[in-house]
User: Which sequence fits this backbone?
């Protein structure tokens, strides 16, 4: 498989995650995901709620064990022994959506930030390290925040504390699950600017999980769109958003202001259910191209309903987006029925 | 017991005031310590009102109950009506109720709870003599039940749905449903009668040699079964409350954060989940600190443990009015004081309550 120029710091290879749900059915939250995160890159993972993006993020963190496939850090598969996970967690840090819940309400800011250092037995200059992490996250002067409890801070300040708690371990990657979704609009920009600055200054790579394409547009280098446990389209953010190829991406983009898609596409049909993944293309019950007959004209309607799509590989070297769609494939090579 | 949120609105925040120090939008501004004084006064005021109601009801409750003390006191001796009238006069029962009430009030306010009919000793002396035995019994039972219950409850909640969890919850519910006197009798039958491991009743056997060690060891020997009975019954509450409290905390994102930082699962439980889950149980511990003193009545009666509970039970049979009033006042005040203490302690333990 071709790699993009810097070798990825974090990648997913054929990742699958199953959950047992009530009634003995199996829910496949993540169903074959390949993903690469280059050093210093910001990758946005977008999709509706329930599409598996949070599970994917937690699997990448080693909090959830995949049923198949593997997570690779710096080219080596992640081992799930206690010791291996611990050292991995020094390098890959998590920032959660709701900073109020992410902080222990009975721990002071100092304790919250210093916890990572204590877990990993870093005892030299603890005070200085904590102060530096807080200052980097824009909480200045840091000493004034040491003894504050989370409930005494604003939402934005709390999220800065959470990020400082992740940064204090000098990680290579931050995985942020909806990092600004619970914040006020005015504070969002500041937190996003902070993420960009950290990338600039420390070469931090970030995977940002979001349902908000506008957010992806403002900070991400690359964008992966997820639907029902699979990535359906991925590529450079600008290309994916200005020229969406997958019908699902088109629908998501069409409702944004100044959308390049000329009409807004309202998704119909049943919302996705991970316990019952449709045959053929998993998006076909809600696909407007199939409903409008465009797929029929291109002669792929049958394939849409019956033929499963291959799992997308990581992005090709040329930077062109990867798309999992029968119709898109047919349009690229009009003669073949179902290529690739 | 509810905390009135309007009274705890003003936090006495830490010395730093971080709200002014950042670029973000403003947060909550910590206020002065004046909120705490108001909170304290309101709690103490509430406690005083409750105490007053207890003082009132102690007098009337046992008179409504009925029963003539003179009848009970002279049951085994043949008496003439004149002797009975003399006794009635001596006990002050011939006076009108309003006068008796005034005497009682006067006594309570000056710390004099009257004289017991059957023991002919001041009630305060009797309570003082028996208090030690009750504190020994209930204190031991409370410590055993709370420490074991909280520990088991935390583990059961952490592994919800596991076999350990199911067994412990089942056991707790069974013990909780068991009536104290019944459980006490079963325990006596099994451990004292059939197995002969422990004495049946009392606190010290009459033939135990004097001296510190023999007496202490014999007391401990006598203590085992009553403590087992009492602890079994109150143990369940700790298990169940701690379990549900841990379940509440278990969903917390801060546990995910801690785990993602590399903290081992059992350390996540010990450092984060359990300390936070302990908060609600503080109230329970304090409530029982008061309640358990009264709750000892059944256990002490079954095991003839010479404590306050047995004293109250014996007083009830006469009815020995001053002694009943005295023990009732004592038990109720213990509950009220413990409640007030719980409210005050909770405020110091949980930074969130300060700003509620």
Assistant:
């Amino acid at each position: 498989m071709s790699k993009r120029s810097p070798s990825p710091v974090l990648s997913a290879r054929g990742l699958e995650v199953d959950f047992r749900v009530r009634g003995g059915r199996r829910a496949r939250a993540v169903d074959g995901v390949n993903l690469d995160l280059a050093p210093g890159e910001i990758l946005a993972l977008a999709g509706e709620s329930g599409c598996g993006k949070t599970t994917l993020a937690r699997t990448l963190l080693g909090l959830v064990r995949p049923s198949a496939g593997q997570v690779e850090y710096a080219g080596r598969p992640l081992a799930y022994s206690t010791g291996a996970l611990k050292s991995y967690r020094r390098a890959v840090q998590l920032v959660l959506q709701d900073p109020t819940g992410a902080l222990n309400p009975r721990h002071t800011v100092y304790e919250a930030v210093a916890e990572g250092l204590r877990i990993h037995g870093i005892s030299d200059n603890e005070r200085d390290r904590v102060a530096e992490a807080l200052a980097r996250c824009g909480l200045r002067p840091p000493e004034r925040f040491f003894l504050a409890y989370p409930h005494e801070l604003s939402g934005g300040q709390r999220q800065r504390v959470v990020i400082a708690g992740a940064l204090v371990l000098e990680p290579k990657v931050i995985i942020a699950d909806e990092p600004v979704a619970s914040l006020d609009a005015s504070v969002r920009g500041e937190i996003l600017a902070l993420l960009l600055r950290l990338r600039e200054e420390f070469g931090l790579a970030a995977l940002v999980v979001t349902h908000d394409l506008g957010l992806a547009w403002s900070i991400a280098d690359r964008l992966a769109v997820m639907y029902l446990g699979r990535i359906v389209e991925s590529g450079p953010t600008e290309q994916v958003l200005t020229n969406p190829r997958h019908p699902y991406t088109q629908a998501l983009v069409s409702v944004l202001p100044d959308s390049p898609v000329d009409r807004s596409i309202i998704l119909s049909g049943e919302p996705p259910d991970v316990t019952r993944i449709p045959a053929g293309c998993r998006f076909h019950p809600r696909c407007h191209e199939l409903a409008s007959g465009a797929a029929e004209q291109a002669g792929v309607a049958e394939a849409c309903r019956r033929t499963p799509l291959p799992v997308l590989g990581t992005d090709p070297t040329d930077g062109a987006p990867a798309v999992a769609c029968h119709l898109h494939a047919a349009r690229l090579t009009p003669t073949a029925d179902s290529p690739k | 017991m509810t905390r009135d949120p309007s009274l705890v609105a003003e936090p006495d925040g830490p010395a730093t005031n971080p709200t002014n120090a950042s670029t973000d939008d403003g947060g909550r501004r910590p206020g002065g310590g004046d909120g705490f004084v108001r909170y304290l006064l309101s709690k103490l005021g509430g406690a005083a009102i409750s105490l007053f109601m207890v003082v009132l009801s102690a007098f009337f409750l046992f008179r409504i109950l009925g029963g003539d003390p003179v009848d009970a006191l002279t049951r085994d001796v043949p008496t003439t009506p004149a002797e009975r009238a003399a006794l009635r006069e001596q006990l002050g029962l011939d006076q009108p109720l309003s006068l008796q009430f005034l005497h009682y009030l006067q006594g309570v306010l000056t710390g004099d709870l009257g004289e017991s009919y059957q023991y002919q000793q001041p009630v305060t002396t009797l309570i003082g003599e028996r208090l030690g035995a009750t504190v020994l019994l209930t204190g031991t039972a409370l410590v055993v039940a709370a420490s074991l219950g909280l520990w088991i409850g935390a583990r059961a909640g952490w592994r919800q749905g596991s076999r350990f969890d199911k067994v412990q919850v089942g056991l707790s519910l069974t013990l909780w449903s068991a009536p104290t006197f019944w459980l006490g009798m079963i325990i006596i039958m099994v451990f004292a009668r059939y197995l002969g491991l422990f004495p049946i009743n009392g606190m010290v056997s009459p033939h135990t040699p004097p001296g510190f060690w023999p007496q202490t060891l014999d007391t401990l020997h006598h203590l085992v079964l009553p403590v087992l009975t009492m602890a079994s019954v109150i143990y369940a509450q700790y298990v169940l409350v701690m379990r549900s409290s841990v379940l509440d905390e278990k969903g917390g994102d801060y546990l995910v954060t801690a785990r993602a930082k590399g903290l081992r699962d059992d350390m996540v439980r010990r450092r984060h989940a359990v300390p936070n889950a302990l908060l609600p149980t503080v109230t329970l511990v304090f409530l029982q600190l008061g309640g358990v003193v009264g709750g000892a009545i059944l256990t002490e009666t079954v095991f003839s443990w010479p404590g306050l509970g047995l004293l109250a039970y014996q007083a009830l049979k006469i009815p020995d009015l001053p002694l009943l009033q005295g023990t009732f006042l004592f038990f109720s005040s213990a509950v009220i004081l413990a409640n007030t203490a719980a409210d005050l302690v909770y405020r110091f333990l949980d930074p969130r309550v300060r700003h509620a």
